[in-house]
Amino acid sequence: MLFAIEEINNSTEILPGITLGYKMYDVCGSIARAVSHFATCACLSDKIKYPSFLRTIPSDYYQSRALAQMVKHFGWTWVGAIRSNDDYGNNGMAIFKDTATQLGICLEYSLPFVRTDPPEQKQKIIETIKGSTSKVIIAFLNHMDMEVLIEEFAHHNLKGHQWVGTEGWISDSQIAIAKGNYILEGSIGLAIRKAHVTGLREFMLDVKPLNSSGNKLFTEFWETAFGACLTATVALIFFRHRNTPIVKANNSELSFLLLFSLTLCFLCSLTFIGRPSDWSCMLRHTAFGITFVLCMLSTQRWSEQGLALLQLLLVASFSKSEERVCSLMGEPEEPQLFKTGDIILGGIFSFHSSWKNIESTYVHSPLPLQCTSLNFRAFQFAQAMLFAIEEINNTTNLLPGIKLGYKIYDACGSTARAVRVALSLMNGNEGTATMSEKPCIGSVPAIIGLQSSSPSMAVATVIGPFHTPMVSYFATCACLSNKVRYPSFLRTIPSDYYQSRALAQMVKHFGWTWLGAIRSNNDYGNNGMATFIEIATQLGICVEYSLPFFRTDPPEQTQKIIETIKGSTSKVIIGFLSHMDMDVLIEEFAHHNLTGFQWVGTESWISDSPIAIGKGHYILDGSIGLAIRKADVTGLREFMLDVKPLNNSGNKLFTEFWETTFGCIFSNIKQTGEHLEQCTGYEDLTGIKNSFHDMSLMSIFNNVYKGVYAVAHTLHSILGCEERCSNTIASHPQAILQHLRNIKFKTKEGEEVNFNENGDPAAKYDIINWQPKKDGSVEFVTIGLYDASLPEDKQLHIDNLTLMWANNSKQVPISVCSGTCALGTRKVLQKGKPVCCYDCIPCAEGEVSNTTGACLTATVAFIFFRHRNTPIVKANNSELSFLLLFSLTLCFLCSLTFIGRPSDWSCIFRHTAFGITFVLCMLSTQRWSEQGLALLQLLLVASFSKSEERVCSLMGEPEEPQLFKTGDIILGGIFSFHSSWKNTESTYVHSPLPLQCTRAFQFAQSMLFAIEEINNSTDLLPGIELGYKIYDACGSIARAVRVALSLINGNEETATTFEKPCSGSVPAIMGETSSSPCMAINTVIGPFHTPMVSHFATCACLSNKVKYPSFLRTIPSDYYQSRALAQMVKHFGWTWIRFKTKEGEEVYFNEDGDPAAKYDIINWQPKKDGSVEFVTIGLYDASLPEDKQLHLDNLTLSWANNSKQVPISVCSGTCALGTRKVLQKGKPVCCYDCIPCAEGEFSNTTGVCLTATVAFIFFRHRNTPIVKANNSELSFLLLFSLTLCFLCSLTFIGRPSDWSCMLRHTAFGITFVLSFVVLISREIVCQDVEVA
């Protein structure tokens, strides 16, 4: 990297006049930065998960495909596989397997391996390979795993297999000279293409310039390479031989001074141990400065220069830097609507729905975003906020003496802009700010907005760490209820979690168990549909298809949706779509006249007036769905239509609104291509009809209104308002957020407002039905209610009204995959389809259903009772017969106890009921007096009795802490004092020895320091002495879990189980450093609710409170780091680039951030001296057409066992003529037996040859009587069509495509019909001849 930067700085062609610098950080194997040089996992191409990731090494997606093509090239259709058990191996092998299957290659086995696997796993791999029939092994392994595995294979002399390798190890010279390298002789595989960078080798070997740019790293490198020990050794030798001529000749005094100062230089690294402080930082600079100058003085005669340098270093060491100042990047953002006040509320609305795309020239700074397409809806939402503020300012009951103001920004429908203006609201648009340790308090106490879920997630992520509340009125994604990711987000609209559940219950209510689904391809649609499918599955509802859609999708995606719907059998479609996506989709459906389907909608579009009057609205006639409950805010309609006051608060926005509404201009300065009248400002709004006058979204306006009032009530509570309030807010934002979460009040309309623990309101929805009127318009009729606060069986209520369904039907549509099975039949699931699709087949002879059985038994019992005095009943022992019939009836009815969710009492009752009734049957059928009663007694005792108190014993020896101190309260700690451990072979003669740790301490010292500080303080825990138990995890996950359990159970050797809550011996545990051990520990201790506080585990997965409920940390999650990196990359405008290096290599990234995939194909060829040569035998280039991607040179290859012949690795050979393939049971399609064709049957090849031969003979003798007698024209046509029939099999060669699939059906259909027509014609002709 340094070489590249130096080369660019010395060039006049790239960045002339600009000097590049660098800042390099040590990530210590943790998180990869933006551009990777060696991370190949195909999963990293996912731009949704990893938006800022790029790489200069090809993705494994291409490598996996290249491997499959190479295997196919050599005719290997039966192979084994071993993969690294990590993302690299698992993802790579999954893609290889998919591609291989498409190419007709079968995997005999695919085994995972990682170098730390126990010996049993290695032995399992060896046994599998020894017992396999395939001769080729695909090794998707990294070089470290390969090195360990090959050593084990060499121990078992496991040679004779042809290895195919990946770039992870195929060109690794260390493996090629390692023990057991002969196992891999003849290997073939893919390697990163050879490259040469002129001057790089020399630059790398010249590491001394590093001393000027990062002396700490240089010091560590130099110490590692040579070491202080070397200097001390030389000094000792010099001292030992100080009187010899050679030492005296080297100026012994200066030599000793040089060696002494060098030793001190190396020892300076010790000053970097421990936590930095002012004095330690000064000592570091001073010590190194003095010792370094001493070295310089000793090597050269630098009297004046040396002293001057020493003086400079001393001054620099003791001086402090100036106070750091942060400056605003770019121009400050100005609000679109603004009003001063004692307290300013923030607002973010998308007054414009899009923006102009401007190409950056990179000559000057980018222009600000130019917003277009005025959005009247957002105007209405903003008006609702202004109305609420005006109403609060004019009342004396809320915030008396306080005037609320506002700053309202335009997000322009852009997530990036939304984040930018949110930060403007936080920092108040200050030009500069000094760094301080005071808590960061935003310039507004709360923000009202945004409309959509995705920008709300982005803004909430950014402002969350500052605890500034954000109250949304229309963002419904269930993901926003996650208080770990979005701690300061609240909303006045219910979460989609409840909407998805309500939709599923409503679908179940109408008996629809087979339906399709279309969702918006964003957070709203994807999360909502995921929840719906989960609940629907629990309720026995099956989804035939679930298709994503976004309004900017290409026509092919829309066409795919239409074709899927046309080909489906379900009659109900769930539309989890935003109103904008629905608008676009319905217009397309109308174009294809896709009617007759019952639509079920969400609140986003089901009550949307523009869709109801738009083109194609008839498609949705009869729709049913959920809508936000109707609401009315007195005075809001009149306030909204009076927009003139806006002229005072936001002149520019008002002007644009007025000009767009009336089609006029306020000033002649604007030059347009058409003549427009001049605006007066007194035009009549009542005469204009547009979406601004549409009040159908009053329920959403009410949500904005409630959000403003919730903030006002919170401020009222915090300021302690009675007759008057203080006009300043001294509270921390966190206090405002806490008060807002707990607020509870009623609006003037009597509606109660409050938030639950997730910041969501109570979930209540109206159920809406689209009913067309005579004039062609649509009426939204409320037919029911869903209230999530009620018990589950009462949440859904539908009124007994006349509903309108699809096609204006009055009957509820039926949408099931299979109907109810009749009595005497049973269900058999249809292969490859969901559980809702089944066939009804008759019950086997002698079988009856539980219902039939119970009915028959009850009927026989009634007949017996009716004729109990007849001789035939008496002869059958009537008492026992009645008891048998009664017990049989109860046996059949026992199945009813399995209905509903299991509980303790229902489980006991199931066993008891069946046990008693079964014993009664046995007693009635046989004379089991004592035995039967004994069995009955045993079942009753077993059902109701509990086992004796269980005692748990400690396994192995108790773990002793490495650091321990008694106290009134003991805190637990887990740190890896050692980074590894000795591997000891288990003899299985005695119990295993405890883990023997090797090497590495500062984190534990920090914990001890904090405890000592608390114990010496009178402000915190006075009278309580904290102690500690700190264990060493040795860098082992297994040991970390073990010592965590030691902290929980207090190392007690035995413990009885009882129903009291299990409380650990420590109230909390500090540690561990890494994410993986933290995940393991928290999985184990989570159920005990013992908190674990980590100082360095950053994985975003640990924020999942379902999996890790007791985990906390004092370091930010990687979720924020990843997003910050993405925003930083976006900020600097780093997009796709394309250039050539000085060596002529072209560099660019595709849409997934990956470079062009090119690999050398390498063959391991052993040389006479026993070493291995990596011979390049070909090239794979994914940028070429598929048939030209793989190119192999005509070179002599070396295969396994030094063979010159290509190995054969197939499960079954090619079948001979006259035989056909029969798959071997339980094996892949590559494994089959060749059996003779049945009598009268022959292969396609034979058929073609025979038909062609007969045709030739017929043509050769076409003038002979026998041919003419057989109707030669029809005979030739028959032979021709039969030949074509047989040749149709050729169309199945190659990978299927749209045209090949159509050709297969068409070709065979035409030729078969020709053959059939000719045969029928001949038959008719022959019959006519006979008649004649």
Descriptive overview:
This protein is α/β, with parallel strands linked by helices and 1332 residues long. Helices cover 39% and strands 16% of the residues. It has 40 helices and 48 strands. It has an eight-stranded mixed beta sheet, with helices on both faces. α2 crosses α3, α12 packs antiparallel against α13 (278-299) and α37 (1244-1260) runs antiparallel to α39. The longest helix is centred in the C-terminal third of the chain and has 34 residues, at 1298-1331. The chain is globular and about 120 Å long. The termini are far apart. The model is unreliable at 28-33, 301-307, 312-322, 927-931 and 938-950 (pLDDT under 50).
Topology:
Layout: H1 2-9, E1 35-36, E2 54-55, H2 60-73, E3 78-84, H3 87-102, E4 106-113, H4 119-130, E5 136-140, H5 143-155, E6 162-165, H6 173-176, E7 188-192, H7 200-205, H8 210-213, H9 215-225, H10 228-240, H11 245-249, H12 252-267, H13 278-299, H14 303-318, E8 325-327, E9 337-339, E10 343-349, E11 352-355, E12 371-374, H15 376-393, E13 404-410, H16 415-427, E14 432-434, E15 447-448, H17 453-463, E16 470-472, E17 489-491, H18 496-509, E18 514-520, H19 523-538, E19 542-549, H20 555-567, E20 572-576, H21 579-591, E21 598-601, H22 609-613, E22 624-628, H23 636-641, H24 646-649, H25 651-662, E23 664-665, E24 677-678, H26 698-718, H27 733-741, E25 744-746, E26 752-754, E27 764-772, E28 778-787, E29 796-798, E30 825-829, E31 838-842, H28 850-866, H29 871-875, H30 878-893, H31 904-925, H32 929-944, E32 951-953, E33 963-965, E34 969-975, E35 980-981, E36 997-998, H33 1002-1015, E37 1026-1032, H34 1037-1049, E38 1054-1056, E39 1069-1070, H35 1075-1085, E40 1092-1094, E41 1111-1113, H36 1118-1131, E42 1138-1140, E43 1146-1148, E44 1158-1166, ...
Parallel strand pairs: 1-2, 3-4, 3-5, 5-6, 6-7, 10-13, 10-15, 15-16, 16-17, 18-19, 18-20, 20-21, 21-22, 23-24, 34-37, 34-39, 39-40, 40-41
Antiparallel strand pairs: 7-44, 8-14, 9-13, 11-12, 22-27, 25-26, 27-28, 28-29, 30-31, 32-38, 33-37, 35-36, 42-43, 44-45, 45-46, 47-48
